[in-house]
Amino acid sequence: MNARREVFSPAAEEQDRRTPSPVPSFPRRPSTAPGLVGRDHELRELQGFLRTAVTHGGACVIRGDAGSGKSELLETAVGLATAAGLHVLRCTGVRGGNPPEYSGLLQIVWPVLKGLRSSPEARQCQLLERLLVDVVPAHTDRGRLSFAVLGALESAGARQPLLIAVDDWDALDEPSREVLSFVARRPGGRAPALLVTSRPHRTHLAPLAGLTEWDLAPLTPAQSAALLAAKRPDHDPQGAHELLVTAAGNPLALLELPVRTEDPVPYAPASSDRLAAALAPGVAQLPPATRDLLLVAALHPAGDLPLLLSAASRITGAAAGFAVVEAAERDGLVTFDGTWLRFSHPATAGAVVHGLAPRHLRAAHAALAAVLEQDPVQKLWHLSQAAEEADPELAGRLEAVHRHALHRSEPVMGVRLLRRAADLHRAPEDRGRCALLAAQLAHDLGWEGLARTTAQYALRHPLGPLGTLCAEALTRLGDANRDDEDGDGVNRDDEDPRRPPADPAAWPVPVGADEQTNALELAQLTAPEVAGDEARADALLVFLDGLPEHADDPRLLHTMAAVGPVRRAAAVIARLSALPRLAHMSQRDVEHLAEAALLAGDPLRALDLYRRTEHRYRFRELTDQLPRVVLRQGMAHLITGDWAQAELSFRRCGELAEENFRGHHASAARLLGDVVGGLRTGTVPAVAARDLTAARRSVRSIDEIVAVGTAWAQVESGDFAAGFAALSSLLADPGRCAAARYALVPFAEAADAVNAAEEARATLAGLERELGAEHTPLVSVGLTVARAVLADDAGAECRYARAFALDLSHRPFLEASLRLAHGRLLRRRHEFTDSRVTLRQAAAIFTTMGAEARVARITAELRASGERAEQTAPGASPSARPEDLLSPQELRIAQLAGRGLSNRQIGAELNLSPRTIGSYLYRIFPLLGVTARVQLAEALRDVPGT
After folding, report:
1. Which of 377, 654, 688, 890 could form a disulfide with 669 if both were Cys (CB 3.0 to 4.6 A apart)?
2. What is the DSSP pairing of strand 334-336 with strand 162-167?
3. Assessment of whether the complete model's pTM goes beyond 0.90
4. pLDDT (tens digit, 9 = 90+) per residue, 579-613?
5. CA distances from residue 740 to 368, 480, 514, 570, 637 in whole angstroms, order as listed
6. Among residues 253, 231, 225, which one has the least CA distance to residue 694?
7. How are beta strands 341-343 and 193-198 bridged, if at all?
8. Is the dihedral of CA 63, 65, 66, 72 positive or negative?
């Protein structure tokens, strides 16, 4: 307390009490900061803290990793405080060095001392100034210094409220931290508000213990995508995805990570000066052995520690032991679990190698190649990065081993191997061939930027006629997005005179294995463009027919299904059925087959293939590929009519897409999930234009699917006229809307409801004539069931017998709809017992599907057939009302008996025998909970007409 008296005199304290500082005002409504994305909650908390702290004192610590946005939040707080009239005192820690003692404290106190030199406390300020500047306080004098600093801050706060803003607290010198922590814990009085940012520390910094802390979490995937779209919008989808994955929710990494269209040689993870300074500021001061270990870990993150230590030892020839990990772990660069070395953040790998000389990188790649004898793919990859000159022999080995990478479900490595092989070849034609193969594979992965630049490289070398056409098509990949600037999904190739439309009729016959491969790839590239043009689509199908030796190639089947999903469906399914075992196929080929089956109308085969694909990706831990596969599984379930499983798959896809930064798959899953929800509940789904635009990148036919789903939902809602009109329009041109083939049964139901059965039968006949021999099993089954639904009384039995003879075990919607229509027919024929049995079977299936609207419809049908309400629909909620518990006939008998009529009198009125009336009453009494006729009047008191 003596230290405080040296700074403050009683007169000064009395003067401060007489002239209190003005109370600053903050806006009542929390404001938003345009530069902060995804930090609205933190900003509200920050404003609340400032309101409280400036009047009652307080301290808060914002804790977060490097680049998480701590400094941005602090700057926002400083701006709010300054606008509200606070005096802001600031200091910043120094990373990568040893700051002088009290350097941080001087940054804060010096402006205060300057302001108090002309005040009554000038003498005390001079003493404090000498104590800080002229004589460094000994450890025993720090308590005295803390009181002196607190007194000076309180004196300044009496004139104008203070906010002390400390950035990078953990990088401040220790004496400054001790003094400021004393100030932070000063209760009441005129203690200033203290706002601190700090990185997490392996051993919790003692001066911060007990203070209020906010942990600044990484941005969510949606927030990361929003920040990237706002700050760096001009990236192709795959480039944006790579940024999002590597940044892992770190705002600084999202803004600073460079996007590469090609890998550098020798390869090193990407980073920038600012990012390296933030994530790895002290890496240059680490021991050389530790830096070598970090280098090989960044170049080969899949290696365990013994392998990495072995590689690091080969760089300099000096043995490296487990102890070299400690320095990197102490600096927070890595974590070690006993086997695996993991960087603290994905972008740290690039930060620790940023700026290294190519010579050092080549040495590290050569060392890794020497220790990776058991992995030919990785060995050759690192060997290629260590090479400085052309090496045709190594290039040939890279070209051969890329197929092994594809079989291991590592297509990204396959692209890198081919691209590096193109550089290492000497012959121009070999360079062009490898570069074109790399561009084709990159396009298949969605890497539009890499595919474009690699195709441009290939065009600078000799290529065959079809290879040239393929490379030119790949260089135009980015134009598709520019052609759809209005977001309506229409590609206006024909409107650009500089880009003549692809004409498969003019393509030459491929000669040689390379040209045949280019022909298949060119056909795949061209298929989306020509699918809506019947003449060009036919020309492409004719071109594919001219490749008989590749008739079972997955690329050919996929292209054929994409161009002619109706005209060639049966041929595609027949070839899929004849394929041998798929174990030897690459993941890319299996997915092509699955997509072909889905497009051609064989959802069960597609579902099986996509499940195999999912298992492979999960085994390889390639979770970023799962959203696409799970989305297609949901589409297969939707086609088979298994709505419950479809909804589950779309939900899974949405979760996986959010976790793996696949926004277009998330949009498609959301849209298709809404479609399924509309079918289940009988509500027309609302379609967001933004979701539809994004979903087109995931599912090309999303517009057609949504159109069919909307029309189908109208039928489920009971708006049969609108549903029939919409489905009739879609079925009028099945070549342009193949999805309408799967809505034949709701089309027939709507037609029957609006008395348009004759028109619907004519439509089905025309569709069958147009399809000809290209009937797929699912469409054939749909036609048979639809004809049964539309059958008149004369031919109904034959139609239903034919439909019930089909195997509908994997098509729940078709089976349930068939039984519903048959139950109605039996009811109309007054075969009530058989009708109820059939309707109950339909209700059970629809309940399992979650088809709520259908269950409600069947409830009404069962009531009309004389079923009691408690038995109408499995899963329906019970009701205690008598009119719900009894059939109309039972209710009428109970009302008459409640009026006092005898069984004979009731029978005479209803034209039934007295014994029948007794049987009815025997069933009615327990349902209503009565034991005598005299209780019926009371039980039916609230029933109208009693």
Report:
1. 654
2. unpaired
3. no
4. 877 777 888 889 999 999 999 889 999 999 999 99
5. 55, 26, 39, 17, 16
6. 225
7. unpaired
8. negative
